[in-house]
Amino acid sequence: MATSHNESSRKVLITGVSKGLGRALALELATRGHTIIGCSRDQTKLDSLQEQLSKSSLIQHFLFKLDVKSNDNVEEFAQIVRKEKLIPDIIVNNAGLAHGKAKIWELDARDFDNVIDTNIKGTANILRHFIPLMMHNNYGIIVNMSSSAGRSTHADFAPYCSSKWAIEGLSKSVAKELPKDMGIVTLNPGSIYTDMLVVCCGDLAAKFQSPEKWAIKAATMILDLTPADNGESLTVNNPRELSSM
Predict the structure, then answer these.
(1) CA 52 to chain centre
(2) Which of 34, 145, 226, 231 could form a disulfide with 175 if both were Cys (CB 3.0 to 4.6 A apart)?
(3) pLDDT in tens, 99-141
């Protein structure tokens, strides 16, 4: 089964698709002939992405405005996807937030809640409503975007680190619950020049590689995943290479 999925065009659901890594990955996968099902809170950026996708690919792609923090929104999204026969072969839980440098007692409670609700609950909402759809199809690969902050700790970023450590634990636990024809992994993308890295690192962020260059490597890695990778913590390294932590 894994071989046939590797060789065919697949439907890939990407959250947080309108900018950064999600947008770059969507465009890269689309140019390779895969169908993108994307979601984001920003309709303007979704519209511009739809225009880009239509220029780079003859395939019809499907973009939806929604907030993954809302379980009701995600449930409705899943129902639409099922009715339109768009059940994904691959899910990339990419939607995430970071916060500026601050000690835990200095960070506004609303900023803390936004990070936790988006990074953890948003991922959980997608899993809750889409895993049953994938199980019905007897196949599915789920990639939960992690971070080096989910495998080490950093002062002044406790909430973000906590959210990514939670993603690691959530993924490994869910891996034990999935049927044998499915797999879930975490993927540390490395340091990429995105808005999120700017929030964390300021001007230093510009020294890192672009999302577009990253997406060339990441797309190959994600497409090569099979249920045999279930439960792994992976890192984007060189093309065609996955490093297991």
Answers:
(1) 20
(2) 231
(3) 888 999 999 999 999 999 999 999 999 999 999 999 999 999 9
Quote the pLDDT of residue 15.
Answer: 98
Confidence (pLDDT) at 198: 53
Write out the two tokens for 189: 């993308």
Nearest to 187 by CA among 217, 210, 160: 217
Q: What is the DSSP letter of 70?
A: -
**pTM for this structure?**
0.90
pLDDT at residue 194, as a whole number? 56
3-state class percentages of the chain: helix first, strand second, coil last, to nearest 5: 50, 15, 30
**Active-site residues: which are they?**
160
In this structure, are residues 236 and 214 in contact, taking their beta carbons and an 8 Å threshold?
A: yes
Residues in the chain: 245
Beta strands of the chain (E only): which ranges?
11-15, 35-40, 62-65, 90-93, 140-145, 182-188, 233-236, 242-244
Q: State CA 64 to chain mean position distance.
A: 15
Collect the ranges in the chain with pLDDT lower than 50: 1-4, 6, 238-245
Neighbours of 30 (CB within 10 A): 24
Beta strand 11-15 with 35-40 is parallel
